[in-house]
């Protein structure tokens, strides 16, 4: 790569489809069947393409490849339905790669929903699924409503309000629904104020973090992101202080723990081994639990009236007069959809540090790196 | 009533069961069948007994009896299943009293869950259900996991972030799960920072509200609770500012709207008629939609292992060493359960203003008021 390919903002652009094919080649090289590798690659690249970089390619070298190195993932493992009641099933994910597993179990739930109106899979023994919203969005694009949540297995990151030990993960939750021809609604959230990836991203960049993301032992806000991994900064729950809803964020994290891990029998955050350490993050995110629910509106209702109603509802929100005319009203999923379209037509933008990492991974895995798109050096200039 | 029955804090205590019987007599007097009236009364008194006074007896005269006066409720209406796919059903609630309807549709979902592992009811044409957590807790007491959410029909209270018009209700959401012999886990939350009842309660008392509950047109925090009903104070979403998660609270409100109203075909908050008025609250909470889901863990898993796991998980949280030894760690539902036990044994405490209102309602409805418990004058003294 020539330096002229890098723009003044230190960004390059990589063809979207070529980037997916590149990641898929890496995953097939690690033993994933081709159809799984394609979905897993699409899910991972979605993070960068949709502007959710903390869950994108940066995790390839940092999170996913180490799972393969340490035999913590079984690339060709078979999902096993251990209990089947028609609309609901319990599934042992056999340690398969979560970037694929999450889409597979939502597809399984969708088949159930087509028959029963609703379909639910309780999943144990799963691994990290990347952006929850990638997987639910795929269902919304097919006219369905999907809900996906995940605990963090035995990894403990956040403390119950007033507690001294970390007992829960960031416990992400996503729900998506169609919005007619417009971008689907896709809520994708951690139940902490922000996911740890955003705190660590700031730490890598040497940036301070806004007040409200981390607190110290006494509950006072911290702006130093490195406090998280030092074990003396603790993620705050969605809602902030008890007066403004911290117990709701905590309560939602417990909802995710119940739905995703307690029913399926996955590893739980609140387990006695949490009573150790400094109060900072402990444990590993193995044996993760998912809750995957799909609603098939046509099957549930017996008619096709929900589609136009959904289109109307989300169009109404977008048409709401804004307080600031330069800031139109939107809904979760809209901005991500715009970025995704731009990435598909103009390439996925990545900063030089990430691009450098991608090339190193390519070399280490013995796979050709993707080529930069023509004119890439003008990005952001 | 003698003045000696009122304690120095202006509180009286009323026998818990007698209070329920009193409210049930009022509801049967308004045409509710006795079995429905009993459940509706239990649900309403739960608000006061569990320490959630903004959703308790204060709403009898303010919210529920006016629904009867205005023929906005059909006390003996029959729930109609308009679509049935086994695990999922769409139900027309026929304008029945939500305090009863919500429990009835969760029972319906529970029957479905016993057969399919999961059961879901999408409900339209419903009315206000009081404390969502009352209804889900009843399922948790029977070993099930329950989720209940409700939009606010055509009543619009909160504005989308950056929007000029109110387009959504406070859209409450509750989830409950068993915790062995301990108090069930019961999350019961509005998707705004606080429910409007808490803001109006402060307004009635002449108290200021904490920063983070209401904002003005520019987004600056307000501490005057009367701004809400003047139309120049707007409820904030759970999460506070965009940096700390406002889009998550808004996104959760949309999740409730989708699940509760879009699938069932109930009235939607985001409808073109919202583009009117001052930007403050508009519309009426008629044709409310509910989403009611029950998971039967034994049926879904095919074994009874979840019960002990749930007991262990919630016991582990309670055993977490607290930062402040005087403030033990808990979980949503624990404090409400303690208050409920105290109310059942010692009577339901209510301030004199509410007790006075109860006696006036009794007189107007031609029903004997409940008697005060012996020693009531010592409450809080």
TrEMBL record, chains A, B:
Keyword Oxidoreductase found: yes
Pfam families: Ldh_2
Protein name as catalogued: Lactate dehydrogenase
Species per Swiss-Prot/TrEMBL record: Nocardia terpenica
Species classification: Bacteria, Bacillati, Actinomycetota, Actinomycetes, Mycobacteriales
InterPro entries, sorted: Mal/L-sulf/L-lact_DH-like_ah, Mal/L-sulf/L-lact_DH-like_NADP, Mal/L-sulfo/L-lacto_DH-like_sf, Malate/L-lactate_DH-like
SUPFAM superfamilies, sorted: L-sulfolactate dehydrogenase-like
Keywords carried by this UniProt record: Oxidoreductase
Family: Belongs to the LDH2/MDH2 oxidoreductase family.
GO MF annotations in UniProt: oxidoreductase activity
